[in-house]
Design goal:
565 residues, alpha/beta, Spore Coat Polysaccharide Biosynthesis Protein SpsA, Chain A, 9-stranded mixed beta sheet, 18 helices, elongated
Length: 565
Amino acid sequence: MLACLLPARNEAEHLSGWFESVRRFADVVVALDDGSTDDTRALLDASPLVSCVIENPVRPTYRGWNDAENRGRLLAASEPLDPEWVMFLDADERIPPDDAAALRSFLEAGADSDDAYLFRVYRMADDLEHYGRAGPWVGRLFAFRPGLHLPRERLHLVPLPTSIPLGRRRRTTIRIQHLAGLTEERRHAQFEKYQEADPGRTHQAGYSHLLASPARLRTWWARSPHLPVLANRPVPDPPPGLGDDNVPIMSVVVIAQNDESRIERAVRAIANQQCPEPFETIVVTSGRDRTAHVVRDRFPGVEVVELDHPVLPGEARNAGLRVARGRYVTFPGSHVEVMPGSLAAEVRAHRCGYAMVMGSMLNGTDTPAGWASYFLDNPGALPGRPSQALDVAPARCSYVRETLVEMGGFPEDMRAGEDTVVNVELFERGYSAFRAQEIVFVHRSHCRTVSKLASHHFVRGRAMGRILFDDAVGRGRLLNRRVVRFVGFASTAARLWRATRAVSVWGDALRTRYWRCSPLVVLGAVSSWLGGCYELARLASRARFRRAFSHAASHHQKRRARETY
């Protein structure tokens, strides 16, 4: 049995929707009326789902609100019910139907009673189909035992038993929709609530961030059947032979622009792959040379998508994704040679339930600048690194195709880094990732000279600057921690340290070569840093220009406020 614990004060407008959400996954509700002056108590008493209501004396404001004491009383009041699980869910929070069904199935399938479970909070905006940002993971669910105690912070506590160690807190992909920021009126109400409850800013430095309108709206997405309940864990994949024999298991999408001279080698390496299940090859071409003609002439079984204008990598990837039919999809690129057996290894790793799979990368540009670029771009893909599940998003990978469809494909306005954006977002949504050592690619970079090395990584740095800027806009603060670390060179120093450490641990015969080209590795990293700083300054300048000629200056000032709640 799952008991949902509800602390509520003046929540009459929210309770109808709250009960509609909770009845999908909870068996019983224990509620506390914290001195309401509206119809909250009457609505709680009238609900058949509510087993017990405890109360505090009526008071006109939120002054004196003690969230820790309220939640502790709720936990104690649930003891006579002897629930198997208890969960805190506030009146202005909802769990959508698809997540509620996944949560119920997870508990019935045997969730670990020694663990506490965290849920990610999404601050909804305008309606339940849009959100402004994804907030932190909050602790809400745990197995009930007599004598449990919660932390004692009066406000902003993590409502999990102090007896459950930090190492037993598990992130889930169950989402909580937070309605307090849905409208401007509700944002002001939440701000006033904390102004009354914490006038001296004892429990938080300030609350002005609660007034900020969302910097941009994102569309709410339906829960994918491929998403595990425990974040970043594999999900069992259907065994071979259960699908349509005419549907390929893997779609290999090669994107090429003016690559007539090297496209045959890339496509032939794919054509020579031995895979136990059928796969398809799709070549997406743009530019002005004969790349498409070469592929059609020499590989008649390959599907060619010929775009009539030069495009950025994201648009080319999406063009291939639209025609791909495989359960999995990979994007090796015209400058990458897929080594024998690699597609079969990718399929095996995906069959184990991993949504993203990365492999090993070999260097195909045998010059000092080429090696420097290789070490900068591939520290996590060195051939000596063993196969393992990943605890961070991969740099390059293949995908379960439906996850990319869910994401809406790749961003189409970036010169580089479009896959980084998608990989990080998928990992943050809870999809799993795996590194398979036996998947091997050869990367032939165009960084044959020092000047090419510097210019290439300057462009890649600009892409990172764009990613950091977009993230800062989403968070409402341009000078957030990630931007400050990047501009202050801390992120670049960490990148060099990671490359050095990766070579020392997994580099084997590559160590001597690394130290010989290490000055060029530093040059490439500095070029990337300069490109990122340039892009951040350029985008920030454009944003300031737009503000100067708009009537929304106060709105942008609010966006720079702290965004934790």
